[in-house]
Amino acid sequence: MMKNVDVTDRVWAHLLAIRAGKACACCGGPWSMGERGALDLYAPLARRDLGPAVVAQIGQSLDGRVATVAGDASDVSGPDGHAHLHRMRALMDGVVIGIGTALHDQPRLTVRLCAGQNPARVVIDPRGRLPDDAPVLRADGTRSIVIQAVRKPRADHVEVLQLPLVDGKFSPNAILQGLRQIGLNSLLIEGGGITIANFLDAEALGRLQVAVSPFIIGSGPIALTRNVQHAKLADCLRPDTRVFGLGTDVVFDCGLTNAAHAATIPLHSIA
Which residue in 6, 81, 153, 245 has the fewest CB atoms around it within 10 Å? Predict the structure, then answer.
């Protein structure tokens, strides 16, 4: 059953209070049905009482594409989908992207479409390809972190997390461990599809959100392509899935772990 979401100023302020450990998802009402839907969608991301959490988000068309053949991905998500992504950023400690996304999309990874603080910005850049003037590395008071295997110097405000490569790439679990050691426990893996698939294959995700926009691209890059292959549908991954109507988009919220399921159960956790 799909739940409709209405992110009013009142419910968003409550969600930010949950993130700060000053409120919980089971109190603060009465809420409208749409506000209750907003709490059901976002409170699992805002909670900090269940330990570290890792969620990935990807926006796609009805036919599973994330861009055209020419690489145009600017409006794959509708206005409500864009706002949803910014809300996710505001609820997390850090947001992680791969070097391909950083170079191609030139993202800022800031919170602009809702109230809230910018998360720490993390770029997975094994060979140090990201230029120092990239938008994601600008000096604006927000933490900027580059994960690299090479000894490439960075600007003074940029933190470098140096990790070894394993078969030419970083272990997703080693990335998470390194980020937790520097205080980032709640993480959004934002893109691109290859990065998200790597974390999914490594069983390093607790939750995956797929935002689907109502149009058909026809050809172009596919949202997720895993290295794991199954011959039978019975063997395929079947997440604990909830569905939310978010204006222009439909969001499939997929729980992949027991902890992700537990986060959907409202609990009075304030002392």
Answer: 153
Q: At what angle do helices 33-46 and 79-91 cross, to 10 degrees?
A: 40
Cβ proximity of 60 and 73 under 8 Å: no
Amino acid at 265: I
Strand residues in the chain grouped as ranges (E):
2-4, 53-60, 94-98, 120-124, 144-148, 158-162, 186-191, 207-212, 240-246, 249-255
Tokens 């594409």 sit on residue? 65
One-letter amino acid at 225 equals: T
Segment 225-249 mean pLDDT: 91
> Does the pTM of the predicted model rise above 0.90?
yes
Query: Position of tokens 């109230």?
Result: 115
> Looking at this protein, which amino acid is placed at residue 110?
T
> CA of 179: how far to CAs of 115, 130, 143, in Å?
25, 19, 12
Per mean pLDDT, which of 25-34, 61-70, 113-122 is the most reliable?
Answer: 113-122
Give yes or no for a cis peptide into 30 (omega within 30° of 0).
yes
